[in-house]
């Protein structure tokens, strides 16, 4: 009897249904997504998918962003980096942070998005400078953990 | 250290000054004394003091107590163990030996009348503290004669008018110096340099009734004193009374150390600038340009002023470039090119796609002959490639903007290129050379830009009278330093570099004259007059810029103090009520 019960319990395993898992992860907020990335290897791989973070970035924008935004953001380092380095601190500073406990979420406008993108671009430019200074221009910028300090006034960038 | 009040009540002066430092008396054996003039009551306790000496002993004990009071507790421990006393029962000589321990320069006779000996200055040690390592020989041709027997540095009664020190205060402040200088142990660190300690002469300035030394703990009062000292010093410089000014500079340094926070830092910088002016030490060895660029980068990172200027100028340029397919920006203030990534990104994302973007950067020659401008251009090109913006770059090295000509810049006709000219904190430097600003403005007119964006410090540091300049810059930089104090996020070394950046500006405003004084800031109203008479009309910076700037400032920690204001189409950034930076945009009158 106990064995049958155990088998029943083990029948459903979320990792077997990646599509459902992705749908769930898409709806998480930033912090939960980071936590999810620490669960297991599969989840970590999925959480690194930039489109999840893109969803997160634009979830509460009042109007959807133009299609030209994506290539620019990807070129500057991707949506995850945009979120971690610029969007999250900007939103929290401006009092627009998502409150997981409450359902009330303010929408934020194109202006905040524009500002974040500008800051993100400056950040990228500084990383370029740091990479050049390090003399190692072949290294991909993603690995460059230089002290890019123009965004210091926001927060210390965290590598997730 | 408390006085032990004894119950003894002998006729002559204060018997309360008995066993001096705590515990010593008990170490000594009681001695039989004979009657030979010795005070009997003290003799009971083992002290041999002649009745006739009682007055002197009392006074010496008072001085000793005072001198010891000036020490911190751990400074006098050595006295308990290291000093050698001969015949400790003889209070007179013992007290003298103790006092000479404290004050080796004091003459043995302890003349209690102030005999002002001629003040001889140790000239070689008279250096500005921060520069002592680099200056070996000083030109003292401007040096006043310092050997005047009747005046000492601290005779502040000589100050007429606005000086805030009355006779009492001068006495007290001289006591301060005395108690400082009498510290043979350097446990007292309140004076700024030990050099200063050595320079102070103590022997001749020991007043008979010494009051307690004033401990500089009341910082609010000292803050007021500091400001007054600064103003008095500037006035002395204005009147060319350099001896007096020197005295004030020392005073300022002393007071500045006791002030924590922005006021102390500002005062230290101003004191150094004043010292430079007095001793004619400017121009110092030319500042390495790459170092000054590094300082400017730290300034960019720690406070929002440069970012504000960049963002607002970019917004104005973006709006002027609306709908144009090819654009050309001429930047008078290239430096590290921090302004342009944001503009390129905004151009990349504008509806209709990015235009072809051409950038001409103008900057001074680099000291180490490397092509800084080209490196900056290369970085920008990389960025442009990443975000798919067609990019072209040209760097121009020029010692001064006035050396430029419109023809050098390869301006294409306006049907092809839409041109913008940008200048951040560069135009005021041209005011140092006569005619330069007019030449540059005429060059800009020849370029025929669609927009000319200018960001400048909002202050009048270019008045003809030194005292006015000094007052204005004191207020301005105090506000700047105040705003910097609020920014808690930056690490200390970054803040220090930002402060050094501003300190350089302060030195230039206060200490230099003529062609060297390049920090000739002028107010927005003054620039408006200048531009209008040169044929420009204002282009109003729109509300988008205002919104962006406000949002940007809200992001800064301690950002409650920053205020963006609109001033007739120009945007100013200030700290509380004081505007500090102003951005304005201009177009040619003919182009409508």
UniProtKB/TrEMBL annotation, chain A:
> What domain of life does the UniProt record list for this protein's source?
Eukaryota
Specify the protein name.
F-box protein SNE
The organism is Citrus sinensis (Sweet orange)
UniProtKB/TrEMBL annotation, chain B:
Which ranges belong to the motif LXXLL motif?
Answer: 427-431
Sorted alphabetically, which SMART domains does this protein's record hold?
DELLA (SM01129)
Chain intervals for the UniProt region annotation (Disordered): 1-33
Just give the chief location class: nucleus
Instruction: Please list the coiled coil stretches.
Output: none
Q: Where would I find the Transcriptional factor DELLA N-terminal domain in this sequence?
A: 39-105
The cellular location(s) given in this protein's UniProt record come to: Nucleus
**Where does the record place the region VHIID?**
296-361
Residues annotated as signal peptide: none
> Pfam families of this UniProt entry?
DELLA, GRAS
**UniProt motif (VHIID) ranges:** 327-331
One of the protein's GO biological processes: hyperosmotic salinity response
**What keyword terms does UniProt attach to this protein?**
Gibberellin signaling pathway, Nucleus, Repressor, Transcription, Transcription regulation, Ubl conjugation
Database matches in InterPro entries: DELLA_N_sf, TF_DELLA_N, TF_GRAS
Annotated segments matching region SAW:
511-587
**GO MF annotation, one:** DNA-binding transcription factor activity
Please explain the role this protein plays, according to its UniProt record.
Answer: Transcriptional regulator that acts as a repressor of the gibberellin (GA) signaling pathway. Probably acts by participating in large multiprotein complexes that repress transcription of GA-inducible genes.
Q: What is known of its domains?
A: The DELLA motif is required for its GA-induced degradation.
Q: What is this protein called?
A: DELLA protein
Q: What lineage does the source organism belong to?
A: Eukaryota, Viridiplantae, Streptophyta, Embryophyta, Tracheophyta
């Amino acid at each position: 009897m106990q064995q049958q019960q155990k088998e029943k319990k083990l029948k459903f395993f979320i990792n077997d249904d990646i599509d459902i898992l992705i749908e769930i992860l898409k709806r998480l907020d930033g912090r939960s997504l980071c936590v999810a990335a620490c669960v297991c290897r599969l989840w970590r791989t999925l959480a690194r998918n930039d489109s999840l973070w893109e969803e997160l970035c634009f979830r509460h924008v009042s109007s959807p962003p133009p299609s030209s935004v994506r290539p620019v953001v990807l070129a500057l380092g991707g949506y995850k980096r945009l979120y971690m380095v610029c969007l999250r601190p900007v939103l929290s500073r401006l009092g627009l942070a998502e409150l997981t406990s409450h359902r009330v979420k303010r929408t934020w406008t194109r202006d905040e998005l524009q500002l974040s993108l500008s800051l993100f671009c400056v950040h990228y430019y500084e990383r370029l400078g740091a990479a050049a200074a390090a003399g190692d221009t072949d290294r991909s910028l993603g690995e460059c953990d230089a002290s890019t300090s123009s965004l210091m006034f926001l927060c210390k960038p965290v590598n997730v | 250290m408390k006085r032990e009040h004894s119950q003894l009540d002998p006729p002559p002066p204060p018997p309360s000054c008995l066993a001096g430092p705590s515990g010593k008396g008990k170490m000594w054996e009681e001695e039989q004394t004979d009657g030979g003039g010795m005070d009997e009551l003290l003799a009971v306790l083992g002290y041999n003091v002649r009745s006739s000496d009682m007055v002197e002993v009392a006074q010496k004990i008072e001085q000793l107590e005072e001198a010891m009071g000036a020490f911190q507790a751990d400074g006098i421990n050595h006295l308990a163990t290291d000093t050698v006393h001969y015949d400790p029962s003889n209070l007179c000589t013992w007290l003298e030996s103790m006092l000479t321990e404290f004050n080796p320069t004091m003459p043995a006779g302890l003349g209690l009348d102030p005999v002002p000996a001629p003040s001889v200055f140790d000239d070689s040690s008279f250096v500005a503290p921060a520069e002592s390592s680099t200056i070996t020989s000083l030109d003292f041709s401007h040096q006043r004669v310092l050997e005047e027997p009747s005046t000492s540095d601290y005779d502040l009664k000589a100050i007429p008018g606005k000086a805030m020190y009355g006779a009492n205060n001068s006495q007290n402040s001289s006591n301060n110096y005395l108690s400082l200088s009498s510290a043979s142990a350097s446990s007292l660190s309140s004076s700024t340099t030990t050099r200063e300690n050595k320079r102070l002469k103590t022997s001749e300035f020991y007043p008979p009734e010494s009051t307690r030394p004033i401990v500089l703990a009341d910082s609010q009062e000292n803050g007021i004193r500091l400001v007054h000292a600064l103003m008095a010093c500037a006035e002395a410089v204005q009147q060319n009374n350099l001896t007096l000014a020197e005295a004030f500079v020392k005073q300022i340094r002393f007071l500045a150390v006791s002030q924590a926070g922005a006021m102390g830092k500002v005062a230290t910088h101003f004191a150094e600038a004043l010292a430079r002016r007095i001793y004619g030490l400017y121009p110092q060895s030319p500042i390495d340009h790459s170092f000054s660029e590094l300082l400017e980068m730290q300034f960019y990172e720690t406070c929002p002023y440069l970012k504000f200027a960049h963002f607002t100028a970019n917004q104005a340029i973006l709006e002027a470039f609306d709908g144009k397919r090819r654009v050309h920006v001429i930047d008078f203030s290239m430096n590290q090119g921090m302004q342009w990534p944001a503009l390129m990104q905004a151009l990349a994302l504008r509806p209709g796609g990015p235009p072809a973007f051409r950038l001409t950067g103008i900057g001074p020659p680099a000291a180490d002959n490397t092509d800084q401008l080209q490196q900056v251009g290369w970085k920008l090109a990389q960025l442009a490639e990443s975000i798919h913006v067609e990019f072209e770059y040209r760097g121009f090295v020029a010692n001064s903007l006035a050396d430029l000509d419109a023809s050098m810049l390869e301006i294409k006709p306006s049907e092809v290129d839409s041109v913008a000219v940008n200048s951040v904190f560069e135009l005021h430097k041209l005011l140092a050379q006569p005619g330069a600003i007019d030449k540059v403005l005429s060059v800009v007119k020849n370029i025929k830009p669609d927009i000319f964006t200018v960001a400048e410090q909002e202050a009048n540091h270019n008045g003809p009278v030194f005292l006015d300049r000094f007052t204005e810059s004191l207020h301005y930089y105090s506000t700047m330093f105040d705003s910097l104090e609020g920014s808690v996020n930056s690490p200390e070394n970054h803040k220090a570099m930002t402060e050094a950046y501003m300190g350089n500006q302060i030195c230039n405003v206060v200490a230099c004259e003529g062609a060297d004084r390049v920090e000739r800031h002028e107010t927005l109203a003054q620039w408006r007059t200048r531009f209008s008479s040169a044929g420009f009309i204002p282009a109003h910076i729109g509300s988008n810029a205002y919104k962006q700037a406000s949002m940007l400032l809200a992001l800064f920690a301690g950002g409650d103090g920053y205020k963006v204001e609109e001033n007739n189409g120009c945007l100013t950034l200030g700290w509380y009520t004081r505007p500090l930076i102003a951005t304005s945009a201009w177009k040619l009158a003919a182009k409508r």
